[in-house]
Amino acid sequence: MELWQIIILAAVQGVTEFLPISSDGHLVVISPLLYGGSTPPPGIAQMTIVLHMGTLLSILVFYWRRAIRLLGEDRRVAALIVLATVPAVILGVPIKFFAEPILESIWLAGLGLPLTGLALLWLKRFPAGGKDYREMSALDAWWIGMLQASAILPGISRSGTTISCGVTRGLSRESAATFSFLMAIPAIAGAGVLELLKHMLKPEGPPLPLAHALIGGLVAFLVGLVALWWLNVWLQRGRLHWFAWYCIGLGICVLVWQTYATFG
Questions:
Q1: Closest CA to 221 of 11, 6, 71, 3
Q2: Residue 46: which domain range?
Q3: Structural domain count of the chain
Q4: Could you report the per-residue pLDDT of 63-119, keeping only the tens digit for each?
Q5: What is the tens place of the pLDDT at every residue in 25-64?
Q6: Contacts within 8 Å (CB) and 24+ apart, 39-46
């Protein structure tokens, strides 16, 4: 991969992994534009692993106090995170290994982005509760986990759907976001492990140059930190629904583009 392609991918991954606009949807959409309509170049699977690790590090740094508490006083929350991760494992692993073309569908991305937008508009209309994420029930965690599982489809934002679901379950917006991103730790780590297993089973060519990997991971990490800060600021100001119009507009543009490309 060219260095400029790596930097663009890393920046897109860092921004869209945390903002409620679907990282998978954006990566699916920009891939044919980034590679000139050709198949992805060698090294893309290895870079995907590196970028996942960069964004994972962003969460660990941004939420480091809460993450450490999961090992001690918040062990019950850790158990809820495990429970919430189960639906994603049940749905995600089979799709990743046996139906991966679904995850690369630009049509699905175009349909999924407006659904994310509708979820964000629902979040605006639904009054937030006052429940802290440490007071969640197992049923709360399960429902949020079900929404996280749906985000394996391109265009469905993991952060957007899980935060929206958390608020409908009575969580405050801040607590819904905190649980969403703590829950992202095993989700992002698991996605990286799946990519690693796929690469080990079917190697993708020569190893990625170390310098390129470090640059990509660093860009994803730094951009991810900024995106997390931005999301929390907008969430506190009640502006998360602004992203809804972006998702809806982008989804419509993608559908028009694909319709023209297919039938035009």
A1: 11
A2: 3-263
A3: 1
A4: 999 999 998 889 999 999 999 999 988 987 788 777 777 888 899 999 999 999 998
A5: 898 888 878 876 556 666 677 788 888 899 999 999 999 9
A6: 41/1, 41/2, 41/5, 42/1, 42/204, 42/205, 42/206, 43/1, 43/204, 43/205, 43/206, 43/208, 43/212, 44/1, 44/204, 45/195, 45/198, 45/199, 45/204, 46/199, 46/204, 46/207, 46/208, 46/213
